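Working notes for the structural subgroup meeting. M.R. asked for a predicted model of this chain before we commit to crystallization trials. I am recording the input and output together here so anyone reviewing the notebook later can reproduce the run.

Input as submitted:
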Amino acid sequence: MSEPASISTGIAQRYATAVYELARDAKKVKAIESDLTALNDALNSSDDFQALIQSPIYTRDQQSAAIGAIAQKMGLSDIMTNTLALMAQKRRLFVLPALVRTLRDIIADEKGEVTADVTSAKALTKAQADKLAKSLKATTGKTVTLNQTVDESLIGGLIVKVGSKMIDTSISSKLNSLQNVMKEVG
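Returned structure, recorded in token form:
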């Protein structure tokens, strides 16, 4: 991990822990979860929102005013609104994507859940996704939520990532392995 990325992760971890503890104590974890969904959607769909949190050309006051208006328009909880305002005043809005990821991970861990990133050559059917989630639950001992993506270059098979573990059963991976073995022979 690069130096700036590890710094961002550390900052996000501290904010996420504080937000989670405040939400847990106030019994508002559900509200924080819906805030995270709204923020994640905004981060993924709005280039202007990305520019606001990433660009150094906005002053603290401009970022604070904008993030306050956005939080109010999105209907974010008081805890998240206050956190975003504090982050704007401290010029830490750039860690918002990492904060969302980290806070989601903390909440999922407290609930005994884990997210598996699944990449397949074609979209999994409901039955296939359910079977995979059941199999992963047996392996991890936690409730598994699948984050599915499609990558046709895999040709077939799956790539499953759960935490730090990865299982690659894709045909393209097997072909690459075979190609490397053939290079060694000849």
